[in-house]
Amino acid sequence: MYLRVLFAAAAFLLAPGIAGAQTAASATPSPSPSPAPTPTVDLAAERIVQIFTSKHVSPDWFTPDLLTHIPVSKIEDVAAQLNFGLGAFKVVAKPTERIATDPPAPWVRYVAIFKAGTDDILIHINDEGKIDGLVFRTPRSTF
To answer: For residue 113, how many C-alpha atoms fall within 13 Å in the half-sphere facing its CB?
Structure first.
């Protein structure tokens, strides 16, 4: 059986997403400037950030099939190893350039940036908004 979860995180190994509060517009026009639009949240990037910053990863973020192959505790272990080996997690970014080893759509590659290195992460979110594929590639140190 093809496992969609691979951990290539040798001995190393993303705060909840951007939360924007929306307020109802007042009935009377206001002379003050309009608030900036709330950014669209990228669920895959949000989940990666949560994996690296939450004390506990929620099993609700994953499909039951994925969890039969890899327990949440293993995902937490990999995140902790990366945070330890590469320093504190900083941010997740979606690369603008494709590389030869990028997965085919609908998989998406992100780069998790840490204090002392980076790690490419491949993720797939199903139609129900759950992670059904997750790959941590071998991390790169910037020492």
So the answer is: 6
**Spatial separation of the C-alpha atoms in residues 36 and 27, rounded to whole Å:** 19
| pLDDT for the residue numbered 8 | 36
- Say which amino acid occupies 11: A
> Domain segments of the chain: what residues?
5-16+40-141
Cα(16)–Cα(105) distance, integer angstroms: 25
Q: What does DSSP say about strands 117-125 and 140-141: parallel, antiparallel, or unpaired? A: antiparallel
Q: What is the pLDDT of residue 99?
A: 83
| Residue 104: predicted pLDDT | 86
Question: Rounded CA gap, 39 and 37, in Å?
Answer: 6
Which parts of the chain are beta strand (E)? 5-7, 89-93, 108-114, 117-125, 131-136, 140-141
- Look at residue 46 and give its three-state secondary structure: helix
> 5-16+40-141 architecture in CATH?
Roll (3.10)
Query: Is residue 119 a contact partner of residue 142, using CB atoms and an 8 Å limit?
Result: no
The stretches in the chain having pLDDT less than 70 are 1-41
pLDDT at 77: 97
Helices (H), ranges, 31-135: 43-53, 64-69, 72-86
